[in-house]
Amino acid sequence: MNTKKEFLYNVLIIITILILDVLGDYIIFDKDIFSSSLNLFLFKTTFTISLLIVYAVNYIYSVPLFLFKKKYKQYFFSFIIMIFLFAGIRFLLEEIILYNIIGMHNYVMNIPVSQFINTYLFDSFYYTLRVCLVSAVICLFFRYNENKEEIHNLQIEQEKAKLSVLKSQISPHFLFNTLNNFYEELYDDKPETASDIMKLSKLLRYVTYETNEDFAFLNKEITFIEDYLYFFKRRYEDNFHVSLHIDGFVHSQKVASLILIHFVENLCKHGIINDKNRPASISLLINENTLELRTKNHINTSVKYTEPGIGTENIKQRLEVIYKDNFILEHQKDSDQFEAFLKLTL
Hints:
This protein has helices at 4-28, 37-67, 72-102, 113-186, 191-209, 218-236, 260-270, 309-323, and strands at residues 215-217, 242-248, 254-256, 280-286, 290-298, 327-333, 337-345. By secondary structure, the protein is α+β, with helices and mostly antiparallel strands. The strands form 2 sheets. Strands 2-4-5-7-6 form a 5-stranded mixed beta sheet, covered by helices on one side. Strands 1-3 form a two-stranded antiparallel sheet.
């Protein structure tokens, strides 16, 4: 049972069924079918205990484990077991324990054993089938309501997510408009600064709007890297010593979005990029179906450098999801140098 409410509903349903069953006995059969009303109550009690046990087993275990998972053969075998379970419990309670108390059998015992077994098993099959059908329908009803509520909650969460995305797009839109205004105001007086603003706007726009999918065009990823490095060059001016070498033909190939920039960002963040005696390098080798990225840099000891780091571990996990086994990722760290290598299928 998942909730208190579900338990109470089951109790009410079971009580209703038992009341109807007792009324049916009084209407269809003779009221004096047993020697006294006490005997009737005792036999009804043992019968009810047997039914409740089968009801609980079917409701809690058999239906969720087998029927809902479409394991029909397993459910059929569990139903056979429940028939013998009901028969065994009822026989123990009625024909052994209760007989020793009141001296009365529920079934006629002076008949051939085979006939008694057939009659007893047939009755057990009928009552087990009835209680299993009822408990399965009730269980299905509650699970249906639960699923309907979960779907409703998911729809609400989806609407909230859409609203959140809409809100997140409002701020970037405002930012891009502001940058465009700056660009227009500075275009005549400071064209170089205006050009930088436009480049920054393009860089932010690409990250915000064009990298939502798993894959992006390789030429756009390379342009993004070039723009990223451009701002470092503007910052360090003549003291920026990072070379970018691209070998191969770029056309309509696609690569996992924002994967390559991770290695470039690590180089700029953790490496020495402003010493001409210790330059850093980034090389891209583009073949027909593969791409190889290699970065080399001296380690900047003035910042905390970890290898491979949380970011690198996340990139590795993402590569495993997207490329499965079709990639090679290697890191090599010496005393003061770090080299990263990535090879993947385009």
